[in-house]
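=== RUN LOG ===
request id: a7f3
mode: sequence -> structure
chains: 1
length: 154
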Amino acid sequence: MAKADLHAKVTPTRATKAKLRKLSYLDITPGMRKEMLKATSPAVPAVRARIRAIPSQHESTQSPGLKESLLKAVRRKTFRRKNTVQVIVTMQGSGLANLARAVEGSIPWVHPTFEHEPIVEQGAQPFFHDPLNELQALVGARMKMVSIKIQKQV
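=== RESULT ===
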């Protein structure tokens, strides 16, 4: 029996390359991101509740204070290429970049005050990792259900 090998070299056109590039960025599981956001939905409210529970001597009603800045900065972010969800705190603005880390206790919180001692070293008030660690089992179970649901669809 004779065996024939047939080889052909095809060079894709620019249009074909462009279409393939577009296809590589398509999300093959469009419902997966939505399901992942549902599964992780308790995370942000739990972190925000912990921020609201941070003791404060001055409840700011006229201008946003540090707690309000932290509350606005907590959000979830999805990564399309990795199919992951992260809970993050992003502080933008003048001198607020390290506020979340200082309140959490990752870095020392030393700051000047008005009408008090010139420099105050404030204790940590963990608000981020503790509530997320408490939710780890619940969110993990929900994410497992998302995984099973997506596997059935594929």
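=== NOTES ===
The chain is about 45% helix and 15% strand.
The radius of gyration is 25 Å.
=== END ===
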